[in-house]
């Protein structure tokens, strides 16, 4: 044994570079440069001088301390922590054990892109552009989907059919990792556990697409950014045998990063609907009652990696999901004479829908870094594809009040084969002139294709015959070529950013049945302005302006009818024109030690407002979008965060806005105006035995439309959580919609008819979730 030890010592002396050199220790403590508080989970990596591969790395513990061991030599020491500037201590000579004492990290510069007010215990922060949501810190999101997160997000409204509105506008540009993707067509398929952040940008600058009246929602998926190997598993089980489970893992070194995640979701839904419609001239009233049951199974994968070499980074990001959904709904209808109350028409319509979804999103990204960390060059190539195939089997029971076999006297079938393709090529460059000013520019090409083939069949003489008056095949393609530039300048007190985006749009659509083509081509300029004035360390005032566009989607343009309910049909309008929007915002942000408040005053003017219009034809209600003259919205938004005590914190928002709609081009009855408001409040309590309690309340007041009003919606969610295994494990119990109040209701009226409706889904759901991170 002594001979072996002697040989090792001789080899270590002669060949230290082979790894036999004596190990020495480097340690220290990382603290916040302003508060002097220790910083947890900061990444610390040791590099040989002028080399890119780390020799050793670690992260700080709960006291902010770190320990590294490495052979003797000269090293560069680097520190990383989200929200703080990266730090480098160059050319450290490690001849013996060394203690660095306290190492301070500085918060990122509070410029136009990162004026942040936040609370450590609250999963939300605001900046000059909008709101950043960290969903993993919100208990009510456990076991849910992206739509559940958005329902609890300030400024955002989620309708019963899953459509999204920002500050009263349904025109939103939803991105995945900053990219256009066809996967955003079904946000209920993206699990909450796969989402890292959501950025709500109400008034984006020229860097972003000018698309969408309300603004941008950017969904950032988890990818793994910490050095080492990390991962986690999650399981949620709920009432009606609902199940959501998933796992993720990533490994990161100084040379590469790879990550992957999988989620499986089995979800059940039930619901009821009621409609009452009166046609004045006919003196008749239609009553409808419906119920539906739905089961869906979804698989979601996200995966990717990064390779770091020199000053270059090559990344791949991928998402794949597939799902199967079955819905069984029945609608009972009866038509009554208003004078005699006699039943003039009575029937039941049963519909079994089966839907298969498949989608994939791929992106290849190249990024070049420079000695000046503010100088950047990035190229992105992405492609996404989504295929949705749906079948419908419809049974009709005329002159009957029950769906009994002996009452069956009509059958129909339908199929929809829908494909969506999105390709994006984009390059962005940032060039700083000095530490106070920079220039940004970029080019982007977006190619989209929507192909919808709908076939409808009637049972005649014992065989199903295609109805050419209803079947249709619709193709929509658009090309958007964009270029932008932004100039930014900052000083101790005042920051400003001005930019312009140019977009050339080419649209082609074809309705195969009639060979009807719709071709459009137009060029638009979209200026933007962002300004920030720092009154002092706690107070800032901001102003933003942008001109935007909301192009009609392929779904809105497609004239094919949705005949799930044959007396209430929804269809598109191929003659729609884009909306053009002017949007302005004036805001104030104040940040105290344990609280913050953001106040925004906003105004929006829309030319060619898109709204849904209801009309009666042959006793059938048709709802389709149309262009109105103008719409205006102005309002006030308050977002507050506060740690009231060591055991109680709250965050909340209130949005109040007045909306005026002018549809006099369609008729005087399409002119309307009204006041609306919505509020969200989250309250977190730290209870004994490491238990956390959270209450989330939402209220949305009645909101006007061109022909009527949507009624108020409100609900309260409650969640309990307890941590285990030194916070690595977590168990939570959540009750959604505690008082069972969530529903979607409203009314439409004109000079010829009035209509009231109520849709109520099962919303009181109990969920038990378990999570473990490593």
Automatic annotation (TrEMBL):
Signal sequence span is 1-21
Give the domain of life.
Bacteria
Per UniProt, residues of the Outer membrane protein beta-barrel domain are 368-772
Keywords attached to this Swiss-Prot or TrEMBL record, sorted alphabetically, are:
Cell outer membrane, Membrane, Receptor, Signal
Please verify whether the record's keywords include Membrane.
Answer: yes
Q: What is its main location?
A: membrane
| A Pfam cross-reference name | Plug
User: Would the keyword Signal be found if you checked this record's keyword annotation?
Assistant: yes
**Where found?**
Cell outer membrane
Which residue intervals define the domain TonB-dependent receptor plug in the entry?
Answer: 143-216
**Full protein name:** TonB-dependent receptor domain-containing protein
From which source organism is this entry?
Answer: Echinicola jeungdonensis
The organism's lineage is:
Bacteria, Pseudomonadati, Bacteroidota, Cytophagia, Cytophagales
């Amino acid at each position: 044994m002594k001979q072996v030890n002697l040989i090792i010592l001789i080899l270590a002396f002669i060949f230290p570079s082979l790894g036999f050199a004596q190990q020495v220790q480097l340690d220290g403590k990382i603290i916040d440069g302003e508060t002097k508080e220790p910083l947890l989970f900061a990444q610390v990596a040791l590099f040989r001088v002028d080399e890119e591969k780390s020799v050793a790395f670690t992260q700080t513990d709960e006291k902010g301390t770190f320990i590294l061991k490495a052979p003797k030599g000269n090293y560069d020491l680097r520190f990383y922590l989200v929200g703080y500037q990266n730090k480098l201590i160059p050319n450290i000579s490690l001849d013996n054990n060394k203690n660095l004492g306290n190492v301070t990290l500085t918060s990122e510069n509070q410029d136009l892109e990162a004026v942040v007010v936040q609370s450590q215990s609250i999963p939300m922060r605001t900046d000059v552009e909008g709101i950043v949501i960290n969903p993993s810190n919100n208990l009510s999101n456990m076991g849910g989907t992206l739509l559940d997160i958005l329902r609890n997000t300030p400024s955002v409204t989620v309708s019963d059919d899953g459509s999204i509105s920002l500050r009263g506008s349904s025109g939103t540009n939803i991105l995945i990792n900053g990219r256009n993707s066809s996967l955003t067509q079904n946000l209920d398929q993206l699990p909450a556990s796969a989402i890292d952040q959501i950025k709500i940008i109400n008034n984006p600058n020229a860097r972003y697409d000018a698309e969408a009246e309300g603004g941008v929602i950017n969904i950032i998926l988890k990818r793994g950014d910490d050095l080492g190997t990390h991962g986690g598993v999650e399981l949620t089980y709920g009432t009606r045998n609902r199940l959501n489970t998933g796992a993720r893992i990533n490994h990161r070194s100084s040379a590469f990063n790879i990550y992957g995640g999988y989620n499986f979701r089995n979800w059940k839904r039930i619901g009821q609907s009621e409609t009452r419609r009166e046609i004045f001239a006919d003196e008749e009233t239609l009553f409808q009652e419906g119920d539906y049951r739905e089961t869906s199974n979804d698989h979601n994968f996200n995966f990717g990696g990064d390779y770091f070499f020199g000053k270059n980074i090559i990344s791949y990001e991928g998402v794949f999901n597939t799902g199967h959904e079955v819905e069984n709904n029945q609608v009972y209808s009866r038509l009554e004479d208003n004078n005699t109350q006699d039943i003039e028409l009575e029937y039941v319509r049963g519909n079994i829908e089966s839907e298969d979804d498949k989608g994939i999103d791929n992106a290849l990204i190249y990024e070049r870094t420079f000695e000046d960390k503010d100088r950047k060059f990035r190229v992105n190539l992405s492609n996404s594809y989504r295929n949705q195939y749906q079948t419908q089997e419809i049974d009709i029971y005329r002159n009957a009040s029950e769906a009994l076999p002996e009452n069956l006297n009509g059958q129909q079938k339908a199929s929809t084969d829908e494909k969506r393709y999105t390709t994006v090529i984009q390059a962005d460059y940032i060039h700083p002139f000095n530490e106070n000013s920079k220039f940004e520019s970029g080019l982007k090409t977006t190619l989209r294709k929507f192909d919808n083939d709908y076939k409808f069949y009637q049972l005649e003489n014992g065989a199903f015959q295609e109805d050419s008056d209803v079947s249709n095949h619709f193709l929509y393609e658009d090309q958007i070529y964009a270029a932008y530039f932004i100039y930014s300048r900052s000083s101790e007190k005042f920051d400003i950013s001005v930019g312009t985006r140019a977009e050339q749009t080419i649209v082609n659509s074809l309705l195969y049945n009639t060979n009807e083509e719709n071709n459009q081509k137009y060029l638009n300029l979209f200026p933007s302005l962002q300004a920030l004035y720092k009154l002092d360390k706690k107070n800032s005032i901001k102003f933003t302006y942008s001109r935007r566009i909301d192009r009609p989607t392929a779904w809105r343009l497609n004239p094919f009818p949705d005949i799930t309910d044959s007396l209430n049909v929804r269809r598109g309008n191929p003659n729609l024109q884009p909306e053009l929007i002017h949007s302005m915002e004036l805001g104030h942000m104040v940040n105290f030690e344990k609280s913050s408040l953001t106040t925004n005053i906003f105004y929006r003017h829309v030319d060619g407002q898109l709204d849904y219009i209801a009309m009666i034809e042959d006793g059938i209600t048709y709802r389709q979008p149309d262009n109105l003259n103008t719409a205006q919205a102005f309002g006030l938004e308050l977002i507050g965060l506060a740690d009231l005590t060591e055991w109680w914190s709250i965050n909340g928002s209130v949005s109040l806005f007045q909306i005026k709609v002018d549809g006099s081009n369609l008729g005087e009855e399409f002119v309307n105006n009204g006041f609306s408001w919505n509020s969200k409040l989250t309250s977190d309590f730290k209870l004994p035995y490491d238990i956390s309690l959270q209450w989330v309340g939402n209220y949305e007041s009645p909101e006007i439309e061109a022909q009527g009003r949507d009624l108020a919606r409100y609900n309260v969610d409650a969640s309990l959580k307890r941590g285990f295994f030194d916070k690595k494990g977590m168990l939570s119990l959540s009750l959604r919609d505690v008082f069972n109040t969530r529903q979607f209701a409203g009314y439409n009226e004109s000079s010829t008819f009035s209509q009231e409706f109520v849709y109520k889904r099962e919303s009181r759901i109990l969920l038990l979730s378990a999570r473990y991170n490593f």
